[in-house]
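can u do me a favor
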């Protein structure tokens, strides 16, 4: 039987409706959530993300400010802007779009962001808080994945979850969120032996590898939930995930499409974090 398709656009819409309602309540107290998005250079994918973030802010009644800096911006100049935004009371969330040009040290820039405004949850303070399960900001993509899993009604506690990929942005925080919900979690990566065998144990598979067709039907246990975080282009330039969707959807119980799965959720969780930051800001 074919898997149920998890509709990321529909789940995302619900999250945004909730955020918009709560933003309206904050507005009654005179607080308008504000997000600053900083981009350095002209990376086409990043420009699309930034445009989408700006539009999403407007839709839920947030203030947003965009800072598009030239490719040759120095690290000192970028950090100076971050510090200015740290002090700006209209701004509750600061997002510096990654990747940054190679002459800028990403870690130094992230460390300069006030942890209370770090709506990406990339600052070491927030990463540490995620580790101990005491966090204000959810890492956006993993939090979006948790919402999608919740939308299936499948219980996470006690399940075997396999995360493929160990990045700081997705794989590692993803494993933590699953663990906080009492899953048994395995992280696979490029050095994992017998990867297919490990993935086949999973009740819930989350792939964040960045390779077209990486997860094949023989790697998936019948009835598993499959979440595809991959964002790749196939040989025809078409957007696709890591999972062989046509074949795996014949084996899985629930599966996310690409596009229309995890992608729309990430910005929704960013809005949620900006709202949280605004609600916690001092009057
Ligand atoms: N580049 C790709 N994804 C992200 C993200 O979630 N946050 C930031 N800041 N940059 C990104």
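np, heres the sequence
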């Amino acid at each position: 039987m074919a898997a149920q398709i998890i509709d990321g656009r529909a789940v995302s819409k619900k999250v945004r409706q909730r955020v918009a309602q709560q933003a309206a309540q904050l507005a009654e107290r005179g607080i308008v959530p504000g997000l600053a998005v900083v981009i350095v250079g002209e990376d086409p994918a990043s420009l699309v993300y930034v445009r989408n973030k700006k539009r999403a802010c407007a839709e839920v009644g947030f203030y947003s400010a965009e800072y598009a800096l030239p490719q040759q911006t120095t690290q000192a100049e970028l950090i100076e802007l971050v510090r200015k935004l740290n002090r700006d009371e209209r701004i509750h969330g600061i997002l510096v779009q990654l990747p940054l040009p190679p002459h800028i040290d990403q870690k130094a820039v992230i460390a300069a962001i006030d942890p209370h405004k770090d709506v990406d949850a990339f600052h070491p303070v927030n990463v540490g808080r995620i580790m101990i399960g005491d966090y204000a900001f959810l890492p956006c993509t993993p939090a979006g994945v948790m919402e999608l899993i919740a939308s299936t009604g499948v219980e996470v506690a006690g399940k075997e979850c396999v995360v493929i990929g160990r990045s700081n942005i997705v794989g590692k925080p993803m494993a933590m969120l699953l663990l906080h919900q009492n899953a048994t979690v395995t992280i696979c990566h490029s050095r994992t032996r017998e990867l297919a065998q490990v993935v086949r144990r999973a009740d819930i598979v989350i792939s964040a590898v960045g390779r077209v067709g990486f997860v094949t039907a023989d790697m998936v246990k019948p009835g598993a939930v499959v979440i595809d975080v991959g964002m790749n282009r196939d040989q025809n330039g078409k957007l696709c995930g890591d999972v062989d969707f046509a074949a795996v959807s014949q084996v899985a119980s629930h599966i996310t499409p690409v596009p229309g799965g995890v992608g729309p959720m990430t910005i929704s969780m960013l809005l949620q974090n900006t709202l949280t930051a605004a609600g916690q800001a001092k009057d």
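The chain has ten helices and eleven strands. hope that helps!!
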